[in-house]
Amino acid sequence: MPMGVLREVLLLVLLYITWITTVSATCQSTEIVDGKKRCVVECGWGDRVCECEVGYDECELTMTATQIKTFASYQVLGVKPNQILGSAGTVYNLDNVTGEPIPVINSTCKNYIDNSTFCITPNWVDGKNYKVVYTLNGVIPSPTIIMDQDATLIAHIVNGLTNEATSIHWHGIEQFNTPWMDGVGQITQCSIAPSTTFTYAFVGTVPGTFWYHSHTGTQRADGMFGGIIVRENNKTKTEVAEAFESLGVGPFLDYPDRHTIVISDWFESTSIDDIEIANPGLRFYPDIPVYEVPMSTDTTYSSTFSYDGGEVGPAPYFSSLINGLGREESVPYISSRLSEFRVERGNVYRFRLIGAQSLYAFRFSIDGHNLTTIATDSYFIEPIEEVNYIIIHSGERYDFLLNATAVISNYIIRIETLEAEPDCFANAPFPSLNHYTEAILHYETAPMDNGVPSTSYESISMNSPMRNCTMGPRCRAVNCPFENFHTSYGIDCINVDNFRLLIETPAEDLPEAYATDNDHLFFWNLNFEGEGFSGSINGRRFVLPPYPPQVQQTQFGQYSDVCDDNQDCSAHPSNQYGCICTHQVEIDYDKTVQIVVSAEGRFLNSHPMHIHGHTFQVLKVGYPSYYDRNGYVNEQNPDIDCNQLLQLPNVTGQCTERTMTCTNPSWSDPSPLLNISSKTPRKDTVIIPAGGYVVLNFKSDNPGYWFAHCHIEIHQIQGMAILIEEASNRHNPAPDELTMCTNYIFNSGFYEKLQFNPNQAETIQVSILSLLMSMLALLIVF
Q1: Interstrand relation of 75-77 and 84-85 (parallel, antiparallel or unpaired)
Q2: In 10 A of CB 172, how many CB atoms?
């Protein structure tokens, strides 16, 4: 075989192998630092997993943020982890007849690989979408980090982005004593400027499934997210195993490097484009090419709706990804790449499901298999068996067991949005919009084409037994955003208020059932009642402060426009523009804090609410009433009194007239009875049902500034967020190196000091001349 042909074959083999196997990095060196055993992981470009093996006190790695194009193979130069991109990359497309990747550009990355010029595998995403994306180490999702419980993660984040700053939030990590490591730019730290490095260091005290993502702008929605798994230590493993055994659940295999599933929605244009269309109300035009100027005759996009009649799709669905791969609906199977998860028949496996999406909730299922849900947001729960669907919202995590007892074959893994054809006055069921993507569950020894696996996909999809819930036994869905599906769908919901913890919360960590006092009872209504009907909490549209309060508290106090719940923020008409401010609440140390988060008012949406720095107990979920004919929301939950007399026109497109705003919520009289126990479920992200509320309690034992917000990206950026200042007199001071970011604010006195003063210059010249004459005189004397 000629050498040139051989090189091309080697390249194609590399392109196939890297997406059907796990490309991982483990400890490349071991150091003893201050008596602690440190694993240094050379986590480089293209690595899908960066793992510190069991037994290390510290786990150190480096990841580089950069923007790249999908479908492009980049030449990577240098030595891990400080690689730079060369200029010999190429673009590939996937042939729609053979499925083979075809290079578009005749360059080094077309046909040449050796130790000095390594070309990384392209991010194939949905087989369709060629655009700029944001990554850590060049992969979507970013590498899954695996570390031990009680170990310290030392993560050096290099900002290789061309134009913008970044920051990395470690979602679900409570950051006890390290609030300035939470990773929220302009809140807990100075954002990481281009060409600079920020080192995050924190302890993984609580084991479980977590994730990390950019918390700057819209970078998360374009690919900058990944999983972080904190392995249970031996003590925790024993405690969990004994608790499961007492409930009839036996041993299971746990391979987080192989069975961590990160799901995300994926949009046609970059997320900053979508935000700049949605926020100002410029409308989407799905029938014309992206970046083409619309005409008045073009059809505008209308939001889609869920099974409860609530709005779910303010931006049009394009595609979705499972571990960075999927298939846009117009792409033939042969021209796609799907993620693959391997099992052996007869074993029970733990899978970890991470919701990294920016907008849509997904219904997750595996054809031919029932699931057992065992954990949410890193806390084990009493097992929920015979589950057909897990509904996962942005920010949430669910762990489940898969019993591999099906016939040896290949099965489709599905994620599907909750969008359905809306019809306010008809009877359910309504057809799904069929917005979904797929992955493969592969039983070892089942047939699969390992040359170009996409040649098998269509056959697998056609022969995979999809569950029909309207025929035979009813299906079971965990974590619905509404009380239940309409009975016609054949699906019953088991929601978070039905969960029970597997391991009891220690008494010293358990809050009371009610807030310590009225100063620690808060009502937050999530709706679109800020300026211009923008995302807000209690009508207050959150804006980031000019100084991050966690590291520059004095400047934050001097220059930030802070507001609280005592101001009138009714958007119309008394205060036309609502309140645009850094919305903040203050809490004292060692109190029971109770937050009643609602989604009531004129607009009907559910919202995934995330609170940084804490997990919280979910005491109660209050649902609205629903129409018998179709399951749509009828009346919002009466437990919440919005205390508003202002009525506005109904929102166009909603089934039920809603004219009341809700910017000053409180309990109605009487308020509901609340209970808490050591088994009450704990989460850090929870779905707030449209027209309803959730009661969250936690102990204020973690001093710092903590961000709380809707985890739908567009809602949070619009202003559906709030800042918690906790125990201000007990903050752990930030290291001096973290307090250096600043703003230059015009000051006339300072400006005058910079002005050129001719008289001052003349005085300086005379002084210098006098000094020289004096020196000359001294020389003459001596």
Answers
A1: antiparallel
A2: 26
CA atoms within 13 A on the CB side of 636: 30
The reported pLDDT for the residue numbered 578 is: 62
487 shares its domain with 538: no
- Domain of 140: which CATH number? 2.60.40.420
Question: How many structural domains are present in the chain?
Answer: 4
Is residue 487 located within the same domain as residue 596? no
Residue in 552, 526, 531 with CA at minimum distance from that of residue 541: 531
Q: Which two tokens stand for residue 644?
A: 């508003």
**Which of 470, 498, 526 is at the close of a domain?**
498
Spatial distance between the Cα atoms of 511 and 142, rounded to a whole number of angstroms: 36
The pTM (predicted TM-score) of the whole model is: 0.91
**Tell me: the pLDDT tens digits for 25-57?**
888 888 898 899 999 998 988 899 999 999 999
- Same domain? For 378 and 491 the reply is yes
Opening angle at CA 632, ends 627 and 634, nearest 5: 55
Question: Within a 10 A sphere around the Cβ of 778, how many other Cβ atoms?
Answer: 9
* C-alpha to C-alpha distance for 132 and 145, rounded to whole angstroms: 24
The pLDDT of residue 782 is 54
- Locate 599 and state its tokens: 């989604």
Asked if 680 and 651 sit in the same domain, the reply is yes
Query: CA geometry: angle at 649 spanning 643 and 654, to 5°?
Result: 95
Residue where one domain finishes, among candidates 231, 249, 271: 231
| Mean pLDDT computed over every residue of the chain | 89
**Cα 778 from Cα 752, distance rounded (Å):** 39
578 and 709 co-located in one domain: yes
User: Within this chain, do residues 530 and 662 fall inside the same structural domain, yes or no?
Assistant: yes
Cα gap 610→399, rounded to integer Å: 18
Q: What share of the chain in percent tops pLDDT 90?
A: 73
Cα 518-524-526 angle, rounded to 5 deg? 175
Q: How are beta strands 75-77 and 693-699 bridged, if at all?
A: unpaired
Which of 173-177, 220-224, 747-751 comes out lowest in average pLDDT?
A: 747-751
Domain that holds residue 395: 260-498
Residues 338 and 201 in one domain: no
